[in-house]
């Protein structure tokens, strides 16, 4: 190889390396610029959207949901732009995103069902915090409604976490949807069989003045060596004071039992 040809090859190789290095530097600068802009946009969107939704709704969960969806959209746009810097085509990115979404949906379908159901519950509001509901075989007061789960507090003061997918798929009875108030009495140390207890309670409370037409709800709380414990819930018009009348009737029917009035 003559000296002239060798020199030309060296110059050509150096030029290609220089151009490649410059391309890498330019790409890195573009990625850094996109990351800075996207981060600033996400922070600005979080503050402004959160403030706007907080003024528009009293439910903090809905405000958080809207804010998180908007921020996630901004970050997704930023990732798409960064992939474009590295030469990824829109069709290829859409194909990858589509395939990844399908795979993720199949792997997390039960979890996603609960999140989708949570969005429905927050938007439609079939019940609210403080309502007394029955879902599947669990009954209690609604303590919180999150995106994935709903928390209930039972009569035994136990906290039950119900997946929102279950709430969405099952029949939900909202006992608080009635306009009547209610009084609940816990009867303990009962020696009678459950069927006889139910008959005695129904007979005793059928003579209570001021009660609603809805029959009392009688439920077994526990059964032990000391006897059975049942909860008795009687519905009545708002503002009607029923405690004294209900306790008198139940004491007459069960003179040896312990009676406790439950709040709510």
Describe this entry's structure for a reader.
The protein has 264 residues and is of the alpha+beta class. The protein has three domains: 3-107, Helix Hairpins (Orthogonal Bundle), CATH 1.10.287; 127-176, SH3 type barrels; 178-262, Alpha-Beta Plaits. The chain is built from seven helices and nine strands. The chain has helices spanning 3-56, 60-85, 90-107, 109-124, 164-169, 194-205, 243-253, and strands at residues 132-135, 138-145, 149-153, 159-163, 172-174, 181-190, 217-224, 227-236, 258-262. The protein has a five-stranded antiparallel sheet with strand order 4-3-2-1-5. The protein has a four-stranded antiparallel sheet with strand order 7-8-6-9, covered by helices on one side. The longest helix has 54 residues, at 3-56. It starts with a helix and ends with a strand.
At a glance:
The chain contains seven helices and nine strands.
């Amino acid at each position: 190889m003559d000296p002239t040809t060798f020199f030309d090859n060296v110059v050509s190789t150096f030029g290609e390396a220089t151009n490649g290095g410059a391309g890498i530097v330019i790409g890195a600068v573009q990625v850094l610029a996109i990351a800075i802009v996207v981060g600033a946009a996400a922070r600005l969107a979080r503050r402004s959207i959160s403030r706007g939704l907080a003024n528009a709704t009293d439910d903090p969960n809905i405000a958080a949901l809207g804010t998180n969806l908007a921020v996630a959209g901004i970050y997704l746009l930023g990732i798409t732009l960064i992939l474009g810097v590295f030469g990824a085509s829109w069709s290829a990115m859409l194909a990858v995103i589509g395939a990844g979404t399908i795979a993720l949906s199949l792997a997390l379908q039960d979890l996603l069902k609960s999140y989708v159901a949570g969005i429905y519950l927050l938007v439609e509001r079939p019940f609210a915090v403080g309502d007394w509901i029955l879902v599947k075989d669990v009954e209690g007061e609604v303590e919180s409604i999150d995106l994935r789960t709903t928390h209930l507090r039972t009569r035994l003061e136990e906290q039950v976490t119900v997946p929102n997918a279950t709430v969405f798929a099952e029949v939900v009875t909202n006992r608080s949807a009635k306009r009547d108030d209610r009084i609940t009495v816990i009867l303990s140390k009962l020696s009678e069989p459950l069927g006889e207890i139910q008959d005695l309670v129904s007979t005793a409370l059928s003579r209570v003045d001021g009660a609603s037409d809805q029959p009392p709800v009688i439920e077994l709380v526990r059964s032990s060596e000391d006897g059975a414990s049942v909860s008795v819930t009687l519905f009545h018009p708002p503002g009607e004071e029923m405690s004294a009348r209900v306790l008198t009737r139940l004491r007459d029917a069960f003179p040896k039992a312990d009676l406790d009035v439950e709040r709510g």
